[in-house]
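Recap slide: Oxidoreductase, sequence and predicted structure.
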Amino acid sequence: MTDFHGKKALVLGGSRGIGAAIVRRFAGDGADVTFTYAGSKDAADALAVETGAKAARSDAADRAAVIGTVREAGPLDILVISAGTLALGNPLDLDPDAVDRMIDVNVRAPYHAAVEAARSMPDGSRIIVIGSVNGDRMPFAGGAAYALTKSAMQGMARGLARDFGDRNITVNVIQPGPTSTDMNPEDGPMSDFMHGFMAIKRHGRAEEIAGLAAYLAGPEAGFITGSLQTIDGGFGA
Ligand code: NDP
């Protein structure tokens, strides 16, 4: 439990999966939380009722929408960017539009959201991006474009950490390994294959990722910035 009373947080991509676990954790710890969704209105409405957080429809692929949402929800003490898509496959066959949309959601949106949030954030605020261990390690074929988007987050966090460091605003990437969500269900066909790369042979729980996000957003983490926080059961070890 972290005390987030009096803190304003925005979670981009909070209707399902890791983002929803972060909404639950932050709202449960007292933060005033807004979260976005694109397609899952029912899930977003249910989560808003459950947690008291505010749901806002905002497509991360739309730069103007992202910037407008951040501006409206601010000034923010905490920005978490969890919205993400996954397009895997042989690059010779992969739909180029799906690749470009993934780059829009996974790369362009985090950059513009982080910069917009920083315009009005108070000193000492926190920016947390959900990257992936695939930013460090891509141990199977078909993941080049996804890995590209997650490696991009590493450079972004390192650079923005320096841009905003004089205001004690920290910028960090959480890099989960396989985590049981709709994107990557533990009972899915790839599970045994993925567990083969891991020291702890199970999927992570979204709540475990939310716990790390709470730590990074909390008072003990003010000296952590420009860092990659890998939470992957040893997938990248
Ligand atoms: P899910 O597919 O379970 O959930 C994705 C969330 O992102 C949903 O709330 C979805 O909202 C939202 N989202 C997707 N596209 C958009 C968009 N265009 N605009 C706004 N919101 C959007 O995924 P996870 O929770 O598993 O993934 C969250 C993050 O964690 C992603 O960045 C992913 O790459 C990363 N990650 C996940 C891992 C895993 O194994 N699960 C491992 C490593 C990293 P809606 O449904 O309303 O559109």
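The beta strands are 8-12, 32-37, 54-57, 78-81, 126-130, 170-176, 228-231.
Residues 8-231 form a domain with the Rossmann fold fold (CATH 3.40.50.720).
(End of recap.)
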